[in-house]
Prior knowledge:
The longest helix has 13 residues, at 2-14. The protein is elongated, with a radius of gyration of 20 Å. The strands form 4 sheets. Strands 1-2-8-9-10-11 form a 6-stranded mixed sheet, with no helix packed on it. With 228 residues, it is mainly beta. Helices cover 11% and strands 39% of the residues. The termini are far apart. A hairpin with a 5-residue loop joins β16 and β17.
Amino acid sequence: MLLITAASAADAQATLAEMPVADLPIVLAIDRALTRSHEMTPSEKKFSDEADAGGVILTYVLETKLRLRSEKYFLVVCSSGGSADYNCVFNLVGGAADLYRDQIEGLRFEIPGDGCVYASGHVNTMFDHRRKYCLGGDRLKEVSQPFHYVGLKSKTLHDLTFYFDKAATNAVGTIPKGEFVEVLVAGAKRENERYDFLVRDKSGLTGWVSLAGGQQAEDIEGIFFAGD
């Protein structure tokens, strides 16, 4: 029975339809059976026009159920933010229409109908940030993780020493400039404008590095702060 349940969940995930959001680099992965169209109200149209005049793209995308067996629909509104701070909000239809509450940043949002939204994207972080938000009442709340998966196979931009612990007390080894490195996970929190990353070298040795969040990659190709 467990195997059947797992297979069914995988099948459900595989049948999600990709829906690009107009004028934004955002994609929704949705179960079309859970969605319906949304007709903008005059006040929503006015708010969208005001955002556009301020240089912000605001798109009222659709309404969707977040739970398969629920009668509640949530309005999905996606935005460019003030400076490429791409995000979507999920507001209960008929509830408080606050587009600045519970913004979820990202470039891809999977909505499989299990009561959760799975967000990912390199937005205001140093890597493709994967997060899970689940309903608590009528609001989505982030599910805490011990680490954030990165899974980036790349190369070093200078000689990079990696350590046994985050305190950088005992060196495990040094990866020469231009050689292979895989960034496995990031620490759960950004501390003092830095992230701790667990990396491995081509020999399979692992260790921690602490990297600053510049807007250009300085240590590992592909690891940089996408934001301001």
